[in-house]
Amino acid sequence: MAINFEETFIALQAPHYRRYFVANTISSFGTWMQRLGISWLVYRLTDSASWLGIITFVGWFSSFLLMPYAGALLDTGRRRQILVYSQILGFSQAMIMALMTFTETINVFWILILSLLLGMTNAFDMPGRHTFVSDMFADKRKLANAIALNSTGFNLARMVGPALAGLIVAKYGEGLCFLLNSLSFLPFAWVLSTMRLEKEVEDRKPASAQETFKQRIYEGLRYSAGHNIIFPMLILLSISSFMGMSIHMVLFPVIADRMLGGGATTLGYLTGAMGFGAILAALGLASRRKLEGIQRLPPAAFGVYGLATIALAFSNSMALAMFFSGIMGGCIVMGWSSSNTLLQTISDRDKISRVMSLSMMSFSGMSPIGGLFMGWFSTATTTEAAMVVGGVSCVISAIVCAFSIRHIRPDFSGK
């Protein structure tokens, strides 16, 4: 299938988005480099897989708890300023990690505290980055393209960043990964601080003096729960993340070792195949010319993800495992990016950050919790059984979601 490059990269015609895209991609590279650096540092200091799980869980769960508050704050219309502050905090966290690692004063308890700080920062940073893109574009087609391009940059960083970090750690140690990550926040902070968007000013609506943040959070929950598309999508994202996304987060090393009889290299092939599939899916979504029908993509993508997961459970050759891993990677991006686009284009503008915070809680927040469950369930049964149960759960939730919205035609005008 030929790709129309002018259509695929149409959002990059906007100068402010070009700068944002480049800076955001650089920041994503730094993030993935630090993730690998932290994992290796924790394992080197503790020689414990349990500590790896604890550090990951603490970082993600602190984000999960704060996201409703973050969404309410971001919906006051000062997303850019909040994002600048979050970059400063991210820079500080990574720089402290780097300095303590270089001076050999770092230990697992400091890593735990700094991971908690980073998780709290990400509660504002992740939904802020997603919803700020909507401040750049009045044209919904360009907005959808920008969201897909962000996924392309993110997945490119996910493929290349850890590989680059592995080389750096082997030669120079983890500290340099943390230092490079801290520096990667600076271009993004500079781009954000110099942007001036007319749409951002128009949408700025300070909260009423009588309206508390508790009331704003409740209003976001009430709006999302009562919406005939947003609520089914949030349920789909939650179940797919809890039962499906946790499989590649937790079980891929086991699949590489026990099912395929390989090691770290095999795991690298599986992860690389996922990343390759993800980039192809992101580019395919970016080349999509219209929004009509996009509500059908998330259930279709997560349904196919479930089927690919079941097929991977019965794959005993490297070629088949890489093939199904590539499909899984493509489905994750197709499902997440299309649902992201859908939610941003149908939500009322004064509630968009609260909706996206709930979306991030449903997708990114549920996967670490699901990872704990899937790790226990696979130990209590078998790896193959856990994969089949996870895949079937994704398929069933996708069918239910598709059935519940089958007659609904979304209004993409926004408010």
Description of the molecule:
With 415 residues, this protein is an all-alpha fold. It has two domains: 183 residues, Growth Hormone, Chain: A; 184 residues, Growth Hormone, Chain: A (Up-down Bundle), CATH 1.20.1250. It contains 15 helices and no strands. Helix 10 runs antiparallel to helix 13 and helix 12 packs antiparallel against helix 13.
SSE order and pairing:
Blueprint: H1 5-8, H2 15-46, H3 49-74, H4 79-102, H5 108-132, H6 140-172, H7 174-194, H8 198-203, H9 213-226, H10 230-259, H11 264-286, H12 297-313, H13 318-346, H14 352-380, H15 383-404
Number of strands: 0
| Full CATH superfamily name of the largest domain | MFS general substrate transporter like domains
Note poorly predicted spans.
Answer: none
Radius of gyration: 21 Å
The description of the largest β-sheet is:
none
Helix/strand class: mainly alpha
* Residue share in β-strands: under 5%
Distance between the termini: 36 Å
> Which CATH top level class of the largest domain fits?
Mainly Alpha
CATH topology of the largest domain: Growth Hormone, Chain: A
What are the key terms here?
single chain; 81% helix; mainly alpha; 0% strand; globular; 415 residues; Growth Hormone, Chain: A
Short description:
81% of the residues lie in helices and 0% in strands. The chain is mostly helical.
